[in-house]
Amino acid sequence: xxxxxxxxxxxxxxxxxxxxxxxxxxxxxxxxQTVHENYGGVVPELASRAHQQNLVPVVHQTLSEANIRxxxxxxxxxxxxxxxxxxxxxxxxxxxxxxxxxxxxxxGVNHMQAHILAHFIEAPKPAFxxxxxxxxxxxxxxxxxxxxxxxxxxxQTRDDAVGEAFxxxxxxxxxxxxxxxxxxxxxQKGNAHAFTFPASEMPDFDYSFSGIKTAIMYFLKDKLKxxxxxxxxxxxxxxxxxxxxxxxxxxxxLTKAAEHYxxxxxxxxGGVSANSELRSAIxxxxxxxxxxxYMPKFEYCTDNAAxxxxxxxxxxxxxxxxxxxxxxxxxxxxxx
Length: 336
Ligand code: KG4
Ligand code: ZN
Hints:
alpha/beta, Nucleotidyltransferase, domain 5, 2 domains, five-stranded mixed beta sheet, about 45% helix, binds zinc ion
């Protein structure tokens, strides 16, 4: 009998639904919320309202594009956490109601685990064990992945996530949210060594990204005293220099962990893994170190329900279902 799962993602500012059949994603619809653009970050209440508006149309669209009737579904999957409570609640309540009405199992998925399992949507799929650098708006983690559902976090940020550092730096430069892709774009025309920012040092395989934002704030304050249009005159160079510092920090710990664990299968995941300079810097490192690197397609780097569907497929095979009493977990953990 075939396994067909409808998956829903609503943890932050993307409302998404996908259908997976026997481990193959057959459709993935993403509605990106634009209401947050001028706020410098996601406004939780606005995110919840937008999910409420988008969810039913997104689910209808994916089912109709996949040509799947509700009666053909084997299970309903949803992002249980981590994420914004109100946003998660919209997806969780919808998934529970649909599973109950169709009398099929419910599968709660961890969003960070799903970012990693996005690698299994399409070939080339990483060989186990591999090391995954997961870099998103809310998390920065180094994860040792032994099997689809067996993972261990070996290092992580102690404060801000790297995506947050991109977005907050962009806000200081007057760019709209999310600033990460804009910094990436401007940086392509800039000199990465025009300015230097202090890279913080944490023990073991941990990171810290909160200091760089403050450093950039003071740097801009000083420069704006000399030239009121300093940002306008130097935007590509500032973006390239910020990006260089952040990527340098990410790769330093990734290299340290790969050497410590003697692992050469390396993957990146999460929204920041869409960054063009991070992708080319990892390829360069891979050539030097003899790594085999894996990067998801852009569509599967940022938030999407296809990765939730992929994770749910593995959980279905293991019989890992959730009860109808399940609640969202804004700080949900994963790993052994
Ligand atoms: O994984 P994701 O879509 O959502 C979370 O789970 O947080 O990641 C969103 C983050 C944002 O901080 C966004 O600025 C960043 O990914 N991002 C990028 C790029 N594309 C998205 N950061 C740098 N360069 C990019 N090209
Ligand atoms: Zn995410």
